[in-house]
Amino acid sequence: MLFNALEFWIFLPVVWLLYFSLPGKIRWVWLLCASYFFYGFWKIEFAGLMLITSIMDWYSAKRVYASEKIIWKRFWMWFAISTDLFILFIFKYFDFALGKSDLAYSLYHNNSTAWIIELGKYTIPAGISFYTFQSISYVVDVYRGDEVPEKNPIKFMLFVSFFPQLVAGPIERFGRLHQQLFQKYSPKLEDLKNGGRLLLYGLFLKVAVADNLAGIVDTFYANPDNYSISSAWLATLLFTFQVYYDFFGYSLLAQGAALLFGIKLMDNFNKPFIAQSVPEFWHRWHISLSTWFRDYIFIPVGGNKKGTTRLAFGVILVFFTSGLWHGANSTMIYFGLSQGVLYLFDRFILKKTFANFKIGIFFRQLKTGFFFMMTLVFFRSQSIDQSTGIYSMLFDINGKHAKTASETIVTTYNFDEAGKAISSNYGPKVLENLSAEFAIWLFLLIGFLLDHLIMKSRADSWFASLPVLIRWVIYLFMLVAVLLFGGAVNHPFVYFQF
Length: 498
Fold this sequence. Notes:
By secondary structure, the protein is mostly helical. It has helices at residues 6-21, 27-40, 44-66, 70-98, 102-108, 114-120, 128-144, 153-161, 174-181, 189-222, 229-259, 278-284, 287-298, 308-326, 330-353, 361-380, 384-394, 438-453, 459-464, 468-485, and strands spanning 409-415, 421-428.
């Protein structure tokens, strides 16, 4: 069920009304049923897979806590982690790992094992990477002694499946979310207002801004060779904002929906485009994932306390894992590794190079945003060949796209009945230019300005601080933009595929 689909806007008020109509002690049961319905709306078997992960990790954490010997604590922790990752591998990476190997060929042509190949090609369960990481963090926290395991497996299932943040985060920690899920709470007008503001603002960013940008970007990536250099730069720039407002919009929608039930989810973004370095950028972008990698991979392998070499290894490992987490595709690995290299370059070279120069804040922000924009070519491309072609186009490496329309020649052939070429004609190939309607530029500008105006407070509290008339003019504008200028295509959220 998509947050930008009509079904969700029927589902949410129904769940809310029934939730507060029930006695406080059993409300969580209804919330659990609603969450599993929400997830199973795509495919019911997806919900079954999430149930297996939840029960397995609940039991493993219980054994970790009960074991007196460290060897058994470690066994149960690694049992949970390895089985979680195995399930993730089978459903997300198996087909990618096999590729065109001899093993893949053998399995595919063997009647008794062909089902293995088909399993690897199965639709990736929505958000499997998100809830798997959230569940793993619980087991590790119990092992570290930071958390006491939940005694009731059904309650733990709600921690894993809570629908607002289930399929695209934020990746919450057990101690923070679990406590809120079972607290005594009565509806508060302030929470309803703030939740409504977040829902409207998030929907505006997703539908009016991101979806319209997606239409332009998709047009370019469908056939990049038909477009000019300026179109390539425009598509690359607009995809940067598409990804941001798509995911930021989802995070606001998740926060807004959760707040209706009195649950405060963590902020997942904090004005990333004001970052003056790549390291700072990743403290502001997808914060829940960045902190997860920091706490469960970077620090355990040494962090920044065991020398430069260990730090560099940890950074590359984190970004390699992050790239792989984003998708079973070599382009995602390149995306992650390129971010890791730029992270180290910015931290150890650029920082020292410009240490004695008073370079403006704007320049450093522009540099950081440019680095990120360039790596997103890997993120959006369907293959390494396509990304290489787009980089060549952006910087006109082979000079192909610098030619004018009259100089760009295309050859066409006529064929006889036997299929032999008998003549050829030459004519100009006109390279097209992408364009965006005025409304799209307006919405993008408004989204950008709002993002930068809300500098020291969350969107909900910032809107609440405005004068009533101005506030309602903004609300009305966003609502009209969603209803009248929403994207022609109802695009899934970018991060749902992860």
